[in-house]
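Field reference: sequence -> structure
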Amino acid sequence: MHNRRRAGVLWVVLYLALALAPLIFMLVGERPTGREFLRELSVAFGFVGIGVMALHFVLTARIAAVKAPFGSDVVYYFHHRMAIITLALWLAHPILLILRFDWALRLLNVFQAPWRARFGVTSVVVILILVGISVWREKLKIEYVNWRMWHGVLAVLAMAAVMVHAFMVGKYLGTPLKRALWLGYGGLCLAAVAYLRVYKPWQMLRHPYRVVDAKAERGAVWSLVLEPVGHSGIGFEPGQFAWLTARHSPFAMQEHPFSFSSSAENGERVSFAIKELGDFTATIGQLQPGETLYIDGPYGIFSPDSYEGIESYVLIAGGVGIAPMMSILRTMADRGETKPVVLLYGSRDWDGAAYREELAELESELNLDVVHVLERPPEGWEGETGFVTREMLARYLPNERPPRYHVFVCGPTGMLNAVEAALLQLEVPDRLIHAERFDLA
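Structure field:
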């Protein structure tokens, strides 16, 4: 735990250093003189924007060492928010010039402007499109796989155009050291792309899996069981997730993230709980035994194994958020653990409560109390109804002051936000609340 915190601090410091390095190098050594402050400020915004843009390639490259201190969901959340800041920095550069200098507006005419300006305008237009299709992907009805492909292509185009623009302007890159720094940022982007799109798929090809079974569960959930082919399998912590590629080469960018639902103690076979929600997930039940799949993982720190000194657990799941909870509970059963566990499991109705029979069996094996919460309870239902609320949590949270139990929450975004807010109101420390968010796009 302490090592992860130290690593997190080091990554934050390194991120800030790399983001600001272009600005620092711009201000030192040889540079143009006699220029107005507003013009210099414009260039400063542009240089910082390029540095931050280069780091987006690193954030999304699935480098385990980068994600380990924070968790993949936090890294992607940060990436989403920083994308807006990156766009603002890139826009601030030309806007300040246009507001102050009449000649700057003429540079927008791509038919008559010099090539250095054309590349600059192209980079801004491309990043506008990139952010636009990301923010409004669902409204534009862009299919996830197509969006991922265009997201990568547009990011590379934007970065290439802005690098060429900076080199052609050249006013702040007049020394070999500064040009080397600029080439280094370009190389960083290329290395991140090569790692994600060449090295990782190649590794996945060398470690294939085959389908053992695709079993229908309650609530339109499928249990997909896989076994390794020609290798020893994958080690993971209960609660982690991986990216799956089915019916395509791992080079094809046809991958989707799913939580492990199997016990981390069984390395010979792994299983995933996948709910029918989209084009790809609707075809899980059509997978046949023997078909080849590829796994990239594991990822995430949504696991009791990632934290020290846990005396008891509160697991809160909504819908297919039960997947990582099943992995946690199955692992505890295989390890013979006796720590107290409360599971609050929200489902639309009783027939849609996936794994409810197995959960009943686990109650007899573990020190486990399962609380089903139904939106549409059947007639005569005497259990909890509606949604997981603050009042409901107050009834089932262990009676400890200060709290020592750890809370793991996984489910729809709205539920996560409401439950986290309720837990904080109940004075559960933030450090004891762990949430898994799959808003990766």
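Note: The radius of gyration is 25 Å.
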